[in-house]
Amino acid sequence: MSEQRTLLVVEDNDEDFTALKRVMRQLGYPNPIYRATDGDDALAYLYHHGAYANTEVAPSPDLILLDLNLPGTDGREVIQQVKQDTMLRSIPIIVLTSSSNPKDVQTSYLYGANSYLLKPVGIDAFKRTIEHFLHYWLEISLLR
Predict the structure, then answer these.
(1) Which residue has the higher pLDDT, 9 or 3?
(2) Which of 31, 85, 103, 108 has its CA 20 to 30 Å from the CA of residue 77?
(3) What are the start-end ranges of the H helices in the chain?
């Protein structure tokens, strides 16, 4: 991974976020990982409101990794709002969720998600999923 990429992870579950950070470090992801704990927090981060007003503390992300089922404003609403905003819509949103509900998949893509990944059960499967995510989105894909 030659280019520095800013990643915003929107995840309300502390254990899932800790596992994600650990796996990404094991896979050699060298950059800081920024976190929002729910949809409202994610939107505050993206619009640089409140605690996120300082862009040095909260840099604009190159990529958003988003859980769907969040307290308050959920992931579907975050996708919809981000993709309707001319300043934010070019940021790829990758859904990483435990929901395999076809309606969630369809809604996510309808609202503008760029990819939909299932959180696999088991650390080995989770590590493989994150490895593929990193390879595709940070090594193969050209980002804005």
Answers:
(1) 9
(2) 31
(3) 14-26, 39-46, 75-84, 102-111, 123-134
